[in-house]
């Protein structure tokens, strides 16, 4: 299993697990909370069939990557991604991020620019800025995120059970677009994540990415479900598309947060069309 070292904690290396398959233009897939790179299983085969080199990786604290007690902030996440890209000597690559992965994309371009990058795709992403402030009245009250952190710290297993109901909108889509078994598999993956990371990542959801997005100067596609209960379309996807010059917004009708699974055919078709086109 391949790993890249992104730092140290005391006597041990901090390592990211990644998978690197296929050939052609590289596409790096960045997962959401609280999953791992394995959550892209609906997209990876289609991308490989289309002739792309597909790289997935597990964010620090999740999946098969190391579980340090620090580094859970977007400057570090972007640096981790940058280290992976450099170690694989990627050129002409596209970045595709779901949920928290949209934050990595924004901060990556904000900190490192677009050298070597060709396209960006943000799916159900947390940018541009979810926290309600004087200059961001469309945001969510900070007390909501404090409550989430308290719930995760108190009993993250119980929290994840409730979280995935709205992640997949199971009241509407269970047995139609998502199975009990798929929801259980997501819970199992979340349960294996670092307890520290599970709490610490909540604070990163309210990062301000507005300046980062202003510097995103490659063709960009934003895909978002119009029934996203985790990261509402009006607070995120619509505003992200408006902030990135020339970005195209695709709204998935009836789509919950995890449209990469429930609406995989539609999302993957849009992704392949965008990656294969001129942007």
Features:
Rossmann fold, chloride peroxidase activity, single chain, 279 residues, EC 1.11.1.10, 8-stranded mixed sheet, alpha/beta, 41% helix
Polypeptide structure, described:
This protein has 279 residues and is of the alpha/beta class. The chain has a single domain, classed as Alpha/Beta hydrolase fold, catalytic domain (Rossmann fold, 3-Layer(aba) Sandwich), CATH 3.40.50.1820. Helices cover 41% and strands 18% of the residues. The protein contains 11 helices and 8 strands. Strands 1-2-4-3-5-6-7-8 form an 8-stranded mixed β-sheet, with helices on both faces. Helix 4 crosses helix 6 and helix 4 packs across helix 7. The longest helix has 27 residues. The mean pLDDT is 97.
List strands and helices in order, with pairings.
Elements: E1 3-9, E2 12-21, E3 26-30, H1 44-49, E4 53-57, H2 74-87, E5 93-98, H3 100-112, E6 117-123, H4 142-168, H5 170-173, H6 180-191, H7 195-204, H8 210-214, E7 220-225, H9 237-243, E8 248-252, H10 259-262, H11 264-276
Parallel strand pairs: 3-4, 3-5, 5-6, 6-7, 7-8
Antiparallel strand pairs: 1-2, 2-4
Helix pairs in contact: 2-3, 4-6, 4-7
